[in-house]
């Protein structure tokens, strides 16, 4: 029989992340507070398989470098994942432009040194 509820330590082990990461997400992603409502008599949170799937989605979106604010909007359905250009794509394009500029600066530096 499958386990119905999981302790935070069990969830952290399953996802291979620190418990503090889960706590951080709970504090900073408001939609999570609505979706995690089970508690022990002592007040400790208990997590369902659905919660674990939600955490997996947060990990996936985090790996795409979405902000926690954006992740909250995506998970709450207020925004779609592809509603605008992904930040990873923007960073990649910026890096290419920076490398091109550095190359041009080096060429200019050689020309200046050659004329001296």
Spell out the blueprint of helices and strands.
Elements: H1 8-15, H2 19-28, H3 30-35, E1 38-39, E2 45-46, H4 49-63, H5 68-75, H6 87-115
Antiparallel strand pairs: 1-2
Number of helices: 6
Low-confidence sequence ranges: none
State the CATH architecture of the largest domain.
Orthogonal Bundle
Number of domains: 2
Count of strand segments: 2
Shape: elongated
End-to-end separation:
81 Å
CA radius of gyration: 22 Å
- Mean pLDDT across every amino acid position: 87
Structural class estimated from helices and strands: mainly alpha
Range of strand content: under 5%
What does this structure look like?
The protein has 116 residues and is mainly alpha-helical. The protein has two domains: 1-82, Multidrug-efflux Transporter Regulator, Chain: A, Domain 2 (Orthogonal Bundle), CATH 1.10.1660; 85-116. Helix content is 66%, strand content 3%. The chain has six helices and two strands, in the order H-H-H-E-E-H-H-H. It has helices spanning 8-15, 19-28, 30-35, 49-63, 68-75, 87-115; strands spanning 38-39, 45-46. Strands 1-2 form a two-stranded antiparallel sheet. Strand 1 and strand 2 form a beta hairpin. The N and C termini lie far apart (81 Å).
């Amino acid at each position: 029989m499958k386990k119905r509820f999981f302790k935070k330590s069990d969830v952290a082990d399953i996802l291979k992340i620190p418990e503090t990461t889960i706590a951080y997400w709970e504090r900073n992603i408001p939609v999570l507070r609505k979706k995690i409502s089970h508690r022990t008599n002592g007040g400790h949170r208990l997590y369902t398989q659905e919660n674990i799937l939600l955490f997996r989605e947060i990990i996936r979106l985090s790996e795409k470098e979405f902000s926690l604010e954006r992740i909250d909007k995506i998970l709450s359905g207020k925004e779609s994942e592809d509603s605008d250009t992904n930040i990873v794509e923007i960073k990649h394009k910026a890096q290419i432009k920076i490398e091109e500029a550095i190359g041009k600066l080096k060429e200019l530096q050689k020309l200046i040194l050659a004329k001296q």
